[in-house]
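For the sake of transparency, this paper describes our internal protein records without simplification. The remainder of this section carries one protein's record, kept here as part of the documentation:
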Amino acid sequence: MRELPQKGEGMTTPTITRHKGKVCVPGLPFMYGAGYEGATEELDRLVVRAAKMLWKAYSLDVEIRFNTNRRSGGAHPIVNGEAVSIGLSAGLKKQRPDGLTDQQWWEMPRPEYYALPDVLYTYTFIDAPYCADPAIINQGNPDHRYAYHEHKTLAAGLRWLKRYAVVPGEEGKGPE
């Protein structure tokens, strides 16, 4: 597990913490975001790097959160004690073989699919209330809309977030 910047006694420097998961439905043993660390050391390092980039860019506390399967995770700014639904993220996905049509890709038998190698990818997302340009909202359903975009690098993802994300409290903008 990677070293994370932490507040010292009496210091006000922003921190980076790892999310331990949250109960989905009270009384049931199901949690979301309970991955704690990446499925591979390489993925974990990439998400820690994303957290440090957000930490420096916004001077806010940052939370690292992985999905329960640990195959994807991201860094989220913390505002008023809560992680905001703005993420600089990375994940593992199966490498698509060259020459496959979309139809062939989606219909690939599971044993063949699971035998494919994993590749790292980087992406960003912004929940609709934090999106500066509604025209880029391209995912979700009527109850949960968000903008999602894959990037070649974390630096490109951070530039995209700086352009499109409205971080609460930043320059007096954003929902509270």
